[in-house]
Amino acid sequence: MTGAGRGQGRSHAVRMASEGADIIAVDLCEDIPSNEYPLATDADLAETAKLVESYDRRVITRKADVRERSQLGEAVEAGIAEFGRLDIVVANAGIAPFGKRASIQAYFDTMGTNYVGVLNSVEASLPHIEDGGSIICTGSTAALMTHGTSNPAFGPGGAGYTTSKRHIARLVHELAAHLAGRRIRVNAIHPYNVNTDMLHSAPMYRAFRPDLENPTREEVEPVLANTSPMELKWLEPGDVSDTVVFLACDESQYITGMQFKIDGGQMLPMSSPGVAD
């Protein structure tokens, strides 16, 4: 589990532990200079481990930069040494350095974390994944929109965000075909806004309210609600974890190559029913 220090990653790790899984919990536990809001800390990752252990499950925690495949390889090896096998990979780590104030470096850091990080996570894990295993990659509804966050208000980090998430959508489709013979499923989840530190950050608020210099949460909430037919401001991390657990378990053993939209209907105006008129 990458990005396990907090947010969606922590939620997925804890929920999977509650269902009986032992967890390899990985997080950078450092800030990335081009990303304006603070990232998870050592204390956050330790809290995730404590929550996993509260379900009487084993957990290995490792500080690792998903942009460096060797660091992920070391984390996987440590987990294999402790647990003896690897059945599920959740490639979840991501950043969103949105806004016109971000430097061009934000584009490269976002691509490196959000896409190369997923690629590295899968590559480091695949030699150890048991036949019949499951790979779950975190995308975003931004990957499925015509422009997503690729517009000036979201800055170079926004462009990198949409591009990286689109690459994830393509990656799971292609890997699913190549791994089907081993019955290893590869799927993507594409959440709507999620109630995490990534969403509730100054650059994100400014991206959604470019008309204001320093918008508050209250000033952003109506804009967020207007992007969902269900008038959702955001999902809770646990709402996404429900789908992650489903894709990890045997009930989804014949589901692969899919793009799971967890979006409160956000994509309905931008998609077709898939049938002829």
UniProtKB/TrEMBL annotation:
Keywords tagged on the record: NAD, Oxidoreductase
Pfam families: adh_short_C2
NCBIfam families, per database record: SDR_subfam_1 (TIGR03971)
Family to which the UniProt record says this protein belongs: Belongs to the short-chain dehydrogenases/reductases (SDR) family.
PANTHER family assigned to the protein according to its UniProt record, in alphabetical order: 3-OXOACYL-(ACYL-CARRIER-PROTEIN) REDUCTASE (AFU_ORTHOLOGUE AFUA_6G11210) (PTHR43180), SHORT CHAIN DEHYDROGENASE MDPC-RELATED (PTHR43180:SF3)
Lineage: Bacteria, Bacillati, Actinomycetota, Actinomycetes, Pseudonocardiales
Gene Ontology molecular function: oxidoreductase activity
Name of the protein: SDR family mycofactocin-dependent oxidoreductase
Gene3D superfamilies on file: NAD(P)-binding Rossmann-like Domain
Record InterPro entries: NAD(P)-bd_dom_sf, SDR_fam, SDR_subfam_1
Source organism: Prauserella sediminis
